[in-house]
Specification:
Arc Repressor Mutant, subunit A, 2 domains, 11 helices, globular
C-alpha cells in the first residue's frame, strides 16, 4: 500500500466505531444518537449514514437511505441492535431530495405513518421525477448546455432509473421553508437552509451538543457534487459557497456526515471546501485563457478529478457527466464574478475569459 493509499484508509476510519465508516452496525456517536451506515448500489460512495435520535415518543431519523431491499434489510438489523424497529420511527428529517437520502424515508414513512420532513425548494424536483409523461430526462438539457451531447444520450438510462418507481418520490408530509427550530424529545434542533448541492438542502444542528448533521453539504473527505440537480438553478456553486460561509458563521461543531466518518470541525472543513473551489475556479480560468471560446466539457477535460487526480477520460460515463455539469457551475461562477463571458448557441453555452 502506498503512502497515499494508507492516508486515505486512515481517513476512512470513523472514531465512533474504530472501523471503516461504511461497516454495518449501530454506532453510538452521542448520548441517544446512533449512526447506521446503509449500502448503496453501484456507487463509489459505498454507503450512506443515517442517524437515529432516541426520545420518549420514539425515534427521529436524519435521512433515510436508498429504497432498495439490501439497504432496508440492513436498516432493520441495525435498528434491532438498539432494541428498535421501523414501527418506532416517528419522523424523518431529510437533508435533500437525492434518492440515497429520500427514497427509503418516503417508503417507510408511508408504510409506518412516520412524518417525512424536507425543504420546500425540493418540490419541483419531486414533481418532475413523478411526471410519467416526461420524455426528456432531467439532466440531458444540462449536459447538452455543457457541450456533452454524446454523454446526454448515454445518460438517458440513468434518468429512466430515477423514475422507476413513483412511490419512492411521494411528497413529504411537511415542507420546511427558511431556517427553523424543531424539538425532538429534550433536544432542540436547528434546521438550517444550505442550498448549493441541491436547492432545498438542509443541515440540522444540535448546538447544545456541538453536533451538525451535515447531509451532503459538509463531507469530511470528499467534495459534494455541484450542478447535479433535477431542476437546474442559477449559480449553484455561488449558492454552495454562500452556504459554506453560513456554516462558518455558526459555532464550530462535530460533523455527522451523510458519507464518510464522523469528523471534528465544521469550521476547518468549510474552510477547506471553500479553498478547494477557489482553486478549481482558478484552474477553470486558466483553461479558458488557454483555449478561448469553449465548452464546459472541454474545460472538464483539462482538469483532474477525484481525490486520486484522475484524468477525465478515465472516469465512467456517469462521473464524466457529473464532471461536465460541475465544471459548468464553476464557469458560471466565473461569469458572475465578471471574469468570464458566456454565449448561448442553440442551447449550448460557450465560455471565454474576460481578461
Amino acid at each position: 500500500m502506498s503512502a497515499g493509499q494508507q492516508l486515505v484508509a486512515e481517513q476512512s476510519i470513523s472514531p465512533d466505531s474504530g472501523e471503516h465508516w461504511a461497516v454495518e452496525g449501530s454506532w453510538r456517536v452521542a448520548d441517544g444518537i446512533t449512526r447506521i451506515p446503509l449500502p448503496l448500489p453501484l456507487d463509489g460512495l459505498k454507503a450512506i449514514n443515517v442517524y437515529v435520535l432516541e426520545a420518549d415518543d420514539g425515534l427521529t431519523v436524519v435521512d433515510g437511505g436508498w429504497a432498495i431491499p439490501v439497504a432496508r434489510e440492513q436498516f432493520a438489523r441495525s435498528l434491532k441492535l438498539i432494541g428498535a424497529t421501523f414501527a418506532d420511527i416517528r419522523r424523518f428529517l431529510v437533508t435533500h431530495v437525492h434518492r440515497d437520502h429520500f427514497t427509503m424515508a418516503a417508503v417507510l414513512g408511508h408504510e409506518y405513518g412516520a412524518e417525512v420532513i424536507m425543504g420546500i425548494e425540493e418540490k419541483p424536483a419531486l414533481e418532475l421525477l413523478r411526471d410519467a409523461s416526461a420524455h426528456v430526462g432531467p439532466f440531458q438539457a444540462e449536459l447538452r448546455a455543457a457541450g456533452a451531447t454524446e454523454l446526454a444520450e448515454q445518460w438517458s438510462r440513468f434518468d429512466e432509473d430515477l423514475r422507476h418507481d413513483p412511490s419512492h418520490w411521494a411528497e413529504p408530509d411537511t415542507w420546511i421553508q427558511g431556517d427553523g427550530t424543531w424539538k425532538v424529545g429534550e433536544r432542540t434542533i436547528d434546521a438550517v437552509h444550505t442550498p448549493g448541492h441541491t436547492p432545498g438542502h438542509y443541515v440540522y444542528a444540535v448546538r447544545a451538543e456541538g453536533i451538525l448533521f451535515s447531509g451532503d453539504h459538509v463531507l469530511p473527505s470528499i467534495t459534494p457534487s455541484i450542478g447535479y440537480t433535477v431542476s437546474p438553478v442559477d449559480q449553484p456553486l455561488g449558492q454552495f459557497m454562500t452556504s459554506l460561509a453560513k456554516i462558518r458563521d455558526l459555532p464550530d461543531m462535530r460533523i455527522l456526515p451523510a458519507h464518510g466518518p464522523v469528523a471534528p470541525s465544521t469550521h476547518d472543513r468549510a474552510d477547506e471546501l471553500l479553498a478547494f473551489h477557489e482553486s478549481r475556479l482558478a484552474l477553470c480560468l486558466t483553461s479558458l485563457r488557454n483555449r478561448g471560446l469553449t465548452t464546459s466539457l472541454t474545460v472538464a477535460r483539462d482538469l483532474k478529478w477525484t481525490r486520486h487526480e484522475c484524468a477525465f477520460d478515465s472516469l465512467d460515463v456517469f462521473n464524466q457527466g457529473m464532471a461536465a455539469m460541475e465544471t459548468k457551475a464553476h464557469l458560471e461562477e466565473l461569469v458572475a464574478r465578471d471574469l468570464a463571458a458566456v454565449t448561448d448557441l442553440a442551447g449550448r453555452r460557450e465560455f471565454e475569459a474576460m481578461d
